[in-house]
Amino acid sequence: MALISHLEELIDPLRIHLGDIATTPDYSDETLHNSLRYAVDALMTRWRMKYYIDGNGVVQRNSTSYRFDFDAPPIIQRQDRQAIVLQASIFIKSGKRFSEANDAVSWRDEEFSYSNLESSRNRADSLQQDIISLESLL
C-alpha cells in the first residue's frame, strides 16, 4: 500500500514513542499508518472536524468549519501532531494489552518462581500515561 495521506511524517515519531526502534521493528509502516489514520478519525469530533479523511484516505483540512492558524503545508498543524501520535499509540497499546492479557502469569514451586506480572503492569502504566498526556493536550 502506498502511503499518501499526510500522515507519513508521523510514522517515525510514533515508532519512537512506542520504543519500536529495533533493527527489525515490531510494527510495519502500514500498521502505524493505519493507527495514525484511525487516530485522526477518533480525534475528529473532539477537534470539531478540524481535519477529515477524504475518500482516498488522504487527511485534509476542513477550512469551512475551522480557522487554521497557519496556511498549508503542512496539512497537519505542528501543535496537533503529538495528539495524533498519542491517540495512535493508545490504539496500539490497547490492542497489544488485550491480546497479551492471558500471557500475564505468575507461578512458584520449591525451587523456582516466575512472574511477568510486573511487565504487564508497566504496559498498563504506559497506556495510562498516554491517555493522561492526550487529555492534557486536548
Protein architecture, described:
This protein is mainly alpha-helical. 49% of the residues lie in helices and 9% in strands. The chain has four helices and four strands, in the order H-H-E-E-H-E-E-H. The chain has helices spanning 11-18, 29-44, 78-99, 117-137, and strands spanning 51-53, 59-61, 106-108, 113-115. Helix 1 packs across helix 3 (78-99), helix 2 packs across helix 3 and helix 3 (78-99) runs antiparallel to helix 4 (117-137).
Key phrases:
single chain, 138 residues, mainly alpha, two-stranded antiparallel sheet, 4 helices, 49% helix, elongated
Report a brief summary of the structure.
With 138 residues, this protein is mostly helical.
Shape: elongated
Low-confidence blocks of residues: none
- Beta fraction of the residues? 5-15%
Task: Work out the number of β strands.
Answer: 4
Class from secondary-structure proportions: mainly alpha
Helix count from the secondary structure assignment? 4
Main beta sheet strand tally, sense and closure = 2 strands, antiparallel
Q: What's the gyration radius in Å?
A: 18 Å
For the terminal residues, how far apart are their CA atoms?
31 Å
Percentage of residues assigned to helices: 40-55%
Helix-strand pattern, N to C?
Answer: HHEEHEEH
Overall mean confidence score, pLDDT: 83
Strand line-up of the largest beta sheet: 1-2
List the helices and strands and how they pair.
Layout: H1 11-18, H2 29-44, E1 51-53, E2 59-61, H3 78-99, E3 106-108, E4 113-115, H4 117-137
Antiparallel strand pairs: 1-2, 3-4
Helix pairs in contact: 1-3, 2-3, 3-4
